[in-house]
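Hi support team,

I've been running sequence recovery on a batch of backbones for a student project. Most finish fine, but this one hangs at about 90% for roughly twenty minutes before it completes. I'm not sure whether the input is malformed or the queue is just slow. I've pasted the structure tokens below so you can try to reproduce it. Let me know if you need the job ID as well.

Thanks,
M.K.
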């Protein structure tokens, strides 16, 4: 028999958000990924093509963490037309020592959104120019909003440029960000217009064809691509990936299978890549000069899920949050 904690989305939102402690927790897992500490199996994905959807399963065991998270994440990208969020799911947490179930986190995709946004902030922290102050966003969904909010943890931002396939969604996001953050946000006419010299760009779409080309790149740019996490997705043109001075991935293995490196290899090309954990641990170089173009491909890892779930569990225990059921 085991006592299992049950937390709802409202419980979880009260425990974690886009804070500096959460940023530190996510940042800490990348060196563990690069050092192959623990165990992180390949992502399992179930496609639902007739509904433009997919269900992904991610997990990781990390030594020193109290729990092992298994995340079941649903992405159904036509949902906004139905007035529904495109992402959903839950996490199950198992005790590291015994394997007994410890918690069910009914977060409806909230933790995935938070840890993905924090990952973008980690990438910007280590790869963007120190004086970067303009953020370009490709896409206008929830992750687009959260990426802007998270990058403020690591850079002083005074301008936001937004492009999305649906201009009305871009306008709505720009209006909302200007009002809520007090930062000038405007809609631009093309993905290339989000790119500025020395700025930051984050691509946040489920696109299956390139949105950013080599011709759009500018000196000093840092670009974080988070949309490509399946074999059929691609946000960056192959030649844009090749042209970057530094190409970083959260996981080489995943980037080659699911991320922006997949199209490069399918084209019979190759490029040098380092992992974000190596940059953080300073065992590989990231940005060396202000003029360099850096790209970080974030495919999302089970290690991030275990890290954010462990933080939730620690805070839930300290605050006696949620409900407990006996199984």
């Amino acid at each position: 028999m085991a006592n299992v904690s049950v937390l709802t989305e409202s419980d979880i939102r009260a425990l974690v958000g886009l804070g500096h402690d959460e940023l530190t927790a996510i940042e800490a897992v990348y060196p563990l990924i690069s050092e192959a500490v623990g165990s992180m199996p390949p992502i399992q994905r179930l496609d639902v093509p007739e509904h433009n959807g997919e269900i992904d399963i991610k997990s990781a065991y990390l030594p020193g963490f109290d729990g092992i998270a298994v995340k079941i994440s649903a992405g159904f990208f036509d949902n906004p037309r139905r007035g529904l969020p495109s992402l959903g799911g839950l996490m199950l947490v198992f005790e590291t020592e015994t394997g007994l179930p410890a918690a069910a986190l009914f977060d409806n995709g909230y933790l995935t959104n938070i840890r993905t946004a924090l990952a973008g902030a980690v990438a910007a922290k280590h790869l963007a120019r120190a004086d970067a102050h303009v953020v370009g966003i490709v896409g206008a969904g929830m992750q687009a909003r959260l990426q802007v909010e998270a990058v403020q943890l690591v850079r002083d931002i005074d301008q936001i440029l937004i492009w999305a396939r649906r201009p009305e969604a871009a306008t709505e996001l720009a209006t909302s960000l200007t009002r809520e953050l007090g930062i000038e946000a405007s809609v631009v006419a093309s993905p290339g217009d989000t790119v500025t010299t020395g700025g930051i760009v984050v691509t946040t779409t489920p696109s299956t064809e390139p949105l950013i080309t080599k011709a759009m790149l500018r000196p000093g740019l840092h670009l974080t691509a988070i949309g490509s996490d399946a074999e059929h997705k691609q946000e960056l043109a192959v030649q844009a990936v090749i042209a970057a001075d530094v190409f970083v991935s959260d996981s080489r293995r995943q980037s080659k299978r699911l991320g922006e490196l997949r199209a490069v290899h399918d084209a019979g090309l190759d490029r040098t890549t380092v992992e974000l954990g190596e940059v953080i641990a300073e065992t590989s170089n990231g940005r060396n000069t202000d003029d360099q173009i850096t790209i970080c491909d974030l495919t999302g890892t089970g290690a991030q899920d275990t890290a954010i779930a462990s933080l939730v569990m620690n805070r839930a225990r300290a605050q006696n949050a949620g409900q407990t059921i006996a199984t």
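--
Follow-up from support: It reproduced on our side and the slowdown came from queue contention, not your input. The chain has two domains: 3-112+302-326, 127-297. No action needed from you.
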